[in-house]
Amino acid sequence: MVYQRPNGQATLEPIIVNGSDTGQQVFENVRKKQYELSRMESRLWFLNLLTTRLEVGNGEIRWALTDQKGAESSGTRVDLKGFIQDKLFSEAIRHPGLLANEHDFLVEYGNLALSKPDETYGFIGQQVLVVSPTADKEKIGWLLLLSLILSPALGLIVGQFTHRAEVGVAVSAGVFACASFLQGLAAWIHK
């Protein structure tokens, strides 16, 4: 599997699958690996969870570069040519059960499985499964709408309990400022 980060950097990450694995088992392994990678790389993983969706497809490796000092931890850096999104795979990473009946998954999609690098060209030219988190404008829009509704509501509640309008306005402005900051940070991360 190739994991392509929002900044465009892609790494080839090993996932061990058996020839008898169903599509559901393969995508459960892909999902688990993607979750580990996103948790390791981002301190703001909760923000990524709220503002991204995963696109899955296939691509061709243009070149590969293995880090000699930490190849096992960092994966093999690769450059992709021609990423093509697959709607079924993109949905299957969220709901692996969609591929429960795909008993011959590796037979049908064997071109996406790497056995070992070619002696001369390494991984160059091989087709791979690509997982890429992208900004989800719908989720970001819902967060904006929620903050527009939530900030005045909290301000009204606090103003009513304290019997001071200025405290309610301050709470409303503070909540809205925090939500706006998080949305701006999400937009900056996914630019």
Notes on the structure:
This protein has 191 residues and is of the alpha+beta class. It contains seven helices and five strands. The protein has a five-stranded mixed beta barrel with strand order 1-2-4-3-5. Helix 1 (23-41) crosses helix 4 (87-94) and helix 6 packs antiparallel against helix 7. The protein is elongated and about 70 Å long.
Order of helices and strands: EEHHEHEHHEHH
Number of helices: 7
The amount of beta strand, in percent, is: 15-25%
Unreliable stretches, pLDDT < 50, 5 or more residues? none
Structural class, by secondary structure, is alpha+beta
- In this structure, how is the largest beta sheet organized? 5 strands, mixed, barrel
Overall mean pLDDT score? 81
What is the first-to-last residue Cα distance?
24 Å
**Quaternary structure of the protein:** single chain
Helix content: 40-55%
Order of strands side by side in the largest beta sheet? 1-2-4-3-5
The total of beta strands comes to 5
The general outline is elongated
Radius of gyration, in angstroms, nearest whole number: 22 Å
